[in-house]
Amino acid sequence: MSAHRSRVRLDEDELHPSLRDPVLGSISFLNEVMSRYPGAVSFAPGAPNLAHLADADLSRHIETYLAHVGRTRGVGADRARRLLYEYGPTGGIINDLVAGALRADHAVAVLPDAVVVTVGAQEALLLVLRALFRAGTDELAVSSPCFVGITGAARLLDIALAPIAETPAGLDLDQLTAACARARRRGRRVRAVYVAPDYANPSGSRMSLRDRVRLLNLAERENLLVIEDNVYGFTAPVGEELPALKALDTAGRVVMVGTFAKVCLPGARVGFAVADQPVRNAAGTPRLLAADLTALKSMTTVNTSPICQAVIGGMLLEHGGSLAALGRQRAGVYHRNLALLLDALDRHVAPWAPATVRWNRPGGGFFVLMDLPVPADAALLERCATEYGVLWTPMAQFHLDGGGRHQLRLSCSYLTPELIEEGVARLARFLRSLPASESVGTNRTVEDVTR
Ligand SMILES: Cc1ncc(COP(=O)(O)O)c(C=O)c1O
Question: Quick one: pLDDT band at residue 437, thresholds 50, 70, 90?
Answer without folding.
Answer: low
